[in-house]
Amino acid sequence: MESDTGTFPPHPIRGVRAVYARQAGCPSDFAEVTVDFEPWEVCVTFEVAADLVVDGDDDPEWQAECQAAVEAGIREEFAQAGAGPSPAVAVVLRRMRFHPVDSHPRAFLHAGRLAVRNALAAAQRPPRAAARRRG
């Protein structure tokens, strides 16, 4: 996970998908996000893409509340990671998917935390090489 500079991410990690879905009764929990993790200055910066794709909700205030929960989850997960490389990352929210009944800010907080875990796991793998064209 660590790069030569001791920061995370060691390279861009794009299209990280995180789904938090828990059915323990009614209501249940559902949130899905896709985020990019880009190398940045030593800190955690969060932004919402100008072309954010939102599936399943059209209320801007509700979306903003859930976006804030994603950011909180991301920050919490980095803070809880403790020892290891310092986060030097710009996290860009690219997509959110809502369920009409089961989505709420707490579910998006968990999705944000999962996105960090998924990105940390992806950092263990080498970056994908460009596909070769046959010709």
TrEMBL record:
InterPro entries assigned to the protein according to its UniProt record, in alphabetical order: Ribosomal_Su5_D2-typ_SF, Ribsml_uS5_D2-typ_fold_subgr, Transl_elong_EFG/EF2_IV
Entry annotated with the keyword GTP-binding: yes
Signal peptide: none
Translation elongation factor EFG/EF2 domain: residues covered: 6-124
Listed transmembrane segments: none
Gene3D superfamilies xref list: 3.30.230.10
Source organism superkingdom: Bacteria
Stored Pfam families: EFG_IV (PF03764)
Alphabetical UniProt keywords: GTP-binding, Nucleotide-binding
The protein, known as: Translation elongation factor EFG/EF2 domain-containing protein
Organism: Streptomyces atroolivaceus
Lineage, highest ranks first: Bacteria, Bacillati, Actinomycetota, Actinomycetes, Kitasatosporales
